[in-house]
Amino acid sequence: MTRIEVTGLYKAFGLQQVLRGVDFEAAQGTCTALLGPSGSGKTTVLRSLNTLEIPDQGVVRIEDVSVDFTTMPSRKERDRLRAQSAMVFQAHNLFPHRTVLENIIEGPVIAQKRPREEAVADAKVLLEQVGISDKLDAYPAQLSGGQQQRVGIARALALKPRVVLFDEPTSALDPELVGEVLAVIRDLAGQGWTMVIVTHEVRFAQQVADQVLFLDGGVIVERGPSAQVIGDPQEARTRQFLARILDQV
Amino acid sequence: MRSLVLLLQLFLLAPLLASPAQAAEQPVVRVGTEGTYPPFSFHDSKTGQLTGYDVDVIKAIGQKAGWRLEFVETQWDAIFPALESKRLDVIANQVAITDARKAKYGLSATYTYSRGVVVRRKGDERIKSLADIKGKTTAQSSTSSWAKVARDAGANIEAVEGVTQAAALLAEGRVDAIVNDNIAILDYLSSTGSDKVEIVGTVDDKIGEQALAFRKDDPLLAQANQAITELKADGTLRGISERYFKADVSVPDGGDVSSQRGHRSIWAIVGETAWPMFLALLKVTIPLTALSFAIGLLLALFVALARISPVRALSGLARAFISIIRGTPLLLQLFIVFYGLPQIGLKFDSFTAATIAFSLNVAGYAAEVIRSAILAVPRGQFEAAATVGLSPAQAYRRIILPQAGRIAVPPLSNTLLSLVKDTSLGSVVLLTEMFRVSQLAAAESNEFLALYSFAGLYYWLICVGLSAIQKRTEARLSRYVIA
Ligand SMILES: Nc1ncnc2c1ncn2[C@@H]1O[C@H](COP(=O)(O)OP(=O)(O)OP(=O)(O)O)[C@@H](O)[C@H]1O
Ligand SMILES: [Mg+2]
């Protein structure tokens, strides 16, 4: 069984139809990159996976939890689906009044009711992994943008999710800080985490992603292995988009 | 000003008057007195006890005669009818001896002598007697009989409200003299310690006499006269008089011994009042503020959450509450709780009523502050809390409210500072908080400027202290918000 299965996702904001039938699957341990122009619906797809956005129609299944949005899901159903994933935000959204360590153990201890010592031990391992083990007691505001985002990643991983969702994790960063965050994400891919990542870092997607979905106007217009979609795009819209993005650099 | 004092005292007395005088098992002597007629019969501002020259005199008489006294505070208009209808046994309220009264009641020996006197600015040698006010200006209550005396003596009359105002005009040199009752002047001099004006002479040799009034042929009268004679002989009466007037008004010629009066400076008066004010601050103002603020904040939190809630009925209710609280005067809210609610059976003592009104008021204002603080927390914080698995309640408690709290501290501090000062309105619901203590002391001593300034100092100090705490709290809460 594939880890993620999305079928017939529709979503409108008012009169604006943002998603018009999005389907995709992702196998366990793979990295899926969502590419597409601004406003194409990438964030909406991602947020539909953890019900921060409630689609109008469609089915989202992660592992053994499946929610059909054709009828309004109950809060319990949504919570169950949400618990399957963790999210890394573009603006990190760390809790500013909590230290790095507290940010990371908040979910495990409070929501998942794991013993605090265990959560702290796990958090330390994770922080080591993202390379900021010396900032345990710092507040987010005392960290650089790259460090903040790496704490954001550690906070997501601490939940031991089935899937990690990233929404443009490097877009808010100064260019010189992008590398350190991408390096961490690359490591995660190597460790077998299942990930869905919205990004404009085409080169990164090409190297790290197993599959690339190219979204435009609320539908996936091209999909396939990253080498193929990025290296040899078939659709005119994909080609235009990539040309524009790669020209910028 | 005197009338304001009377009004305040009436307020205080209202509950006393309302409660029926208790019937004692053993026979007692019921003393009718106004209780609102300083310095003869009034309530001490610090203790609330009935006191005054007449009260002390009748107490001394009662002790001598072996009576058990029961004071019945009665308005002047009703006092003689009450005596006649045997609801009182004696009136101790500066009853002037007149032929008409002599015929109708059993009047005791005189215990207060009074006469008309001429008062001048200290050391103003132009005025030595009534004859000297001819062509000069005197300050008089226009309705008093002394105005006529002054006019007949050839003076121009400047109409004033009372002795205090007359003395102020005289001290400032805006009038040349006052013609008045010596007791009123002695009371003024004694209670203010003023040394700017002095009694120079008497109007004529007519002497007013005041006595106790009993029912005709009441055997108590003889006992009273016996006691008065003894009290005069042993100096008790003189002692009581000097306590109030710094002069002996219980003898016919004692009233113009005006010079050996001890001078009470403004500082002495402020010094005397400072401690009772401080106690009222500790016992009433601060607990009232703290309690109202705590309850108010808690209420405000619920109102704010209701206001944000998507449930229409809830947010509508919260909106209405906020609108009513912010759209009506705090004074009115206090009045509704204290005077209004008892009409539907909800009766609270002053402190409780004030706490309720202030809490609701704080809730109304703080709810808006808290609401906008919650809305000022970035959406991403709600979302991050949700994605780490917190329930909405957990997210509020652990993530949103602490951040909203930091945003809300400065505006909530303003609410608190306002509240500290607003507690002074508690005086209108008969709460003896700090400001009321200063009010009563000022009414007694006429040192309005000094005592009110002093009350201001107390409020200011508290607010300075609270502002310092606010700064520290803000610093503590914002240690994580480094730019
Ligand atoms: N909450 C919302 N209310 C109304 N419109 C919305 C909302 N969220 C997104 N949209 C609209 O839906 C469309 C798709 O938004 P989405 O954020 O998914 O795009 P995106 O592909 O992530 O774009 P970007 O690359 O700029 O982040 C946009 O036109 C956006 O304006
Ligand atoms: Mg987006």
Question: What would your notes on this structure say?
Answer:
The complex is a heterodimer of chains A (249) and B (483). Chain A is of the alpha/beta class and 249 residues long. Helix content of chain A is 39%, strand content 25%. Chain A has nine helices and ten strands. Chain A has helices at residues 42-49, 75-82, 100-111, 116-130, 145-157, 175-190, 202-208, 226-231, 236-248; strands at 4-13, 16-26, 31-35, 57-62, 65-68, 85-88, 163-167, 195-198, 211-216, 219-225. The longest helix of chain A is centred in the last third of the chain and has 16 residues, at 175-190. The relative contact order of chain A is 0.17. The mean pLDDT of chain A is 93. Chain B has 483 residues and is an alpha/beta fold. Chain B has three domains: 24-112 and 209-245, Periplasmic binding protein-like II (D-Maltodextrin-Binding Protein, domain 2); 116-206, D-Maltodextrin-Binding Protein, domain 2, CATH 3.40.190.10; 266-477, MetI-like fold. Chain B has a five-stranded mixed β-sheet, with helices on both faces. A three-stranded antiparallel β-sheet of chain B has the order 10-7-11. In chain B, a hairpin with a 6-residue loop joins strand 2 (42-43) and strand 3 (50-51). In chain B, 43% of the residues are buried. Residues 10-26 and 255-262 of chain B have low confidence and may be disordered. The A-B interface holds A 50, 52, 79, 82-83, 85-87, 89, 91, 93-97, 106-107, 110-112, 139-142, 155-156, 159 and B 378, 380-381, 383-391, 394, 398-399, 402-403, 406, 477, 479-483. Magnesium ion binds at residues 42-43, 167 of chain A.
